[in-house]
Amino acid sequence: QAFFAVFGPTLFGLSPPRRPRGAPPLPRGEMRTSKKKEDSENKKHRFVDSSRSALFIQARFRHAKTVFRDFGPSVFCNRMGDPCDHGDIVFLSDRAAKYIVLSETSSTGLLSKFVEGFWGVSKPEVLISVTGGARDFELSPPLARAFKSGLVEAATSSRGWIVTGGTDTGVMKLVGDACLESHLSVPVIGIAPYGATNGNDKLAGQFRRVVYTNVPSPSKDGAPLNGGHTHFLLVDSGLAGRGAWGTEIKLRSRLENFYVERKGVPRVVLVVNGGPGTM
After folding, report:
1. Nearest 5°: CA angle at 81, between 77 and 82?
2. What does the pLDDT read at residue 1?
3. Which of 45, 19, 44 is nearest to 30 (CA)?
4. Higher-confidence position of 7 and 100
5. Is 71 left (phi over 0), alpha (psi -120 to 50) or beta?
6. Beta strands 96-103 and 231-236: pairing type?
7. CA 255 to CA 249: how far, in whole Å?
């Protein structure tokens, strides 16, 4: 949009020059010759302008792609303005997941380019947004089987993204464990509050590879991340402990809405358990 706002007219050829008002009409033969000349000149201008514009657009596209592919995390910072923490988390299951810690005010447009460009996650055909209770609960065996098989089938057949709160509690744990058991190959993205993530002190630094063990169990002040997820966006609001719960919701909503409204991706919201805050 910014490109077309500034350079839009350069995509088109020049208009034919107008004869001054009151000028005597050209003879018929001369008029045809003059018209042919003008058409030839205009075609030349249009070809040159279009070629330049196309080359410029391609160069800008390659530049943006290269920036996010090679320097993606450098585009973001934490809420203090310092470079954001990012790297890989290795869980007890030996499964590794990508993570980045970023400010709650981060641009969703840039975040979309980062996820697709730096992490190499393909644009989804559908967003499966799972929300609900954060407290642990048990489903009856038939309901648990139906939930797991239905979720896995929906995600694989649609080549979608599964988005959850990312922690090892409640519905997030249910979804993560189901994906891990099923060896699901689709992205499972957890968007969690950094201040309420247990073991977040292990995540400090750039291009880290963190072995995520010996992390405190879930409590009112925080919860560990779930190992069934493939990517984590950890939202830093500056708050810690129980005060940080819910501070990730705005960024999650903005990111999901960006894909729905700007990229035309349909969204399915799956609510499991929960209370008034879930709605």
Report:
1. 70
2. 55
3. 19
4. 100
5. alpha
6. parallel
7. 10
Helix (H) or strand (E) holding 24: none
Which pair of tokens denotes residue 226?
């779930």
Long-range Cβ contact pairs of 150-153 (< 8 A, separation 24 or more): 151/175, 151/178, 151/179, 151/270, 152/178, 152/179, 152/182, 152/184
Q: What is the pLDDT of residues 48-74, one digit of tens each?
A: 556 676 666 666 655 555 555 555 666
Average pLDDT of the chain? Answer: 79
- Residue 237 tokens, joined: 């609001």
Rounded Cα gap, residues 25 and 38, in angstroms = 16
And the tokens for 173? 């744990």
Entry pTM: 0.73
Neighbours of 68 (CB within 10 A): 21
What phi, psi does 265 have (nearest 5°)? -90, 125
pLDDT, residue 271, reads: 86
Token pair in block for residue 46: 């249009």
The amino acid sitting at 169 is T
Where b means 16+ CB within 10 Å and e means fewer, 125-142 reads ebbbbbbbbbeeeeeeee
* Amino acid 15: pLDDT: 46
Radius of gyration of the chain from Cα atoms? 27
Q: CA nearest 128: which of 103, 84, 163?
A: 163
Identity of the residue numbered 269 = V
pLDDT band at 154 (very low <50, low <70, confident <90, very high): confident
Sheet containing 161-164, strands listed edge to edge, beginning at the edge strand earlier in sequence:
208-211, 86-90, 96-103, 231-236, 188-193, 161-164, 127-132, 267-272
